[in-house]
Amino acid sequence: MLKLFQKINKANISRTETQACPSDEHIKSIESLNLDSYIIVDWGVKAISVFDDLHYDRSDLDVMAPGMRRYVKNKLESIGFAQISGCRFKNEVYDIVCEMPKLNVKGASPFDATNYIKKREYDLFIMTPTQLAAHYIDSLEHAEAVEKIMNLVHKHPVNLFKIMDFVEDKVAHQNFLSVIHHIINEQKKAIKTEPLCRLKSLK
């Protein structure tokens, strides 16, 4: 029992320890994944979006489908990351961990995606586009969040109706509701244009 406690305690320490700032070379290596239309790396919020689909139903589960998981796994491995658990990848040289949320509850809110991940300053979330949009709303000032989501929907469409279903009484959420119909219209235009219209679901 003592050994088990020590092992668990060591794991918790390793996930909350301080972390050295990555070199410019290491950051550029991760950001090089942006050359792939199915991947968006936003170093500013330490997140990776994996393309999901062009069209959604508001009842769709917002989870990383097996095809999305395989795709990002292959891309991360191409720049030196190794899978260390079902949802976690680490590059030992960069000392950076990339982790997918564990959302096992049907209908779970995209705003909850990062709530149960303990990450260090330079570790990254791996998210669906909808989860990333929700993360922008919760973590950025309104104007910046809207700007980033507008850019996002032109590359990785978002299940905006899912977001509408889970907004709370928070000021940030209500502010976003005031512009969401404009973003919905922009996304409708975007999915009809090149090269976005050629992307296929990774499910």
Strand content: 5-15%
Element pattern in H and E: HHEEHEEEEHHHHH
Flag low-confidence runs.
Answer: 1-15
Number of strands: 6
Helix content: 40-55%
Strand order of the largest sheet: 1-2-6-5-4-3
Helix/strand-derived class? alpha/beta
Shape: globular
Number of folding domains?
1
Query: How would a textbook summarize the main sheet?
Result: 6 strands, mixed
Distance between the termini: 41 Å
Overall mean pLDDT: 91
Number of helices: 8
Radius of gyration equals: 17 Å
Characteristic key phrases:
41% helix, 8 helices, alpha/beta
Structural commentary:
It is globular and about 45 Å long. It contains 8 helices and 6 strands. It is of the alpha/beta class. The protein is about 40% helix and about 10% strand. It has helices at about 1-15, 25-30, 65-80, 130-140, 140-155, 160-165, 170-175, 180-190; strands at about 40, 45-50, 80-85, 90, 95-100, 125. A 6-stranded mixed β-sheet has the order 1-2-6-5-4-3. Helix 4 (about 130-140) runs antiparallel to helix 5 (about 140-155) and helix 5 (about 140-155) packs parallel to helix 8. The longest helix has 15 residues, at about 1-15. It has one domain. The protein starts with a helix and ends in a 13-residue tail after the last helix.
Summarize it:
The protein has 203 residues and is an alpha/beta fold. The chain has 8 helices and 6 strands, in the order ααββαββββααααα. The chain has helices at residues 2-16, 24-31, 66-78, 129-139, 142-153, 160-166, 171-177, 180-190; strands at residues 39-42, 47-50, 82-83, 88-91, 96-99, 124-127.
